[in-house]
Amino acid sequence: MGLAEIRDRIATEAKRVGRAPESVTLIAVSKVQPNERVEAVLMEGQRVFGENKVQEAAGKWPAFKERFEGVELHLIGPLQTNKARQAMELFDVIHTMDRPKLARTIARLSEELGHCPRLFVQVNTGEEPQKAGVMPAEADDFIKECRDLGLVIEGLMCIPPAEEEPSLHFALLRKIAERNGIEGLSMGMSGDFETAIAQGATHVRVGSAIFGERDYS
Ligand SMILES: *Cc1c(COP(=O)(O)O)cnc(C)c1O
Question: CB within 8 A of 61, min separation 6: which ones?
Answer without folding.
Answer: 49, 51, 71, 73, 90
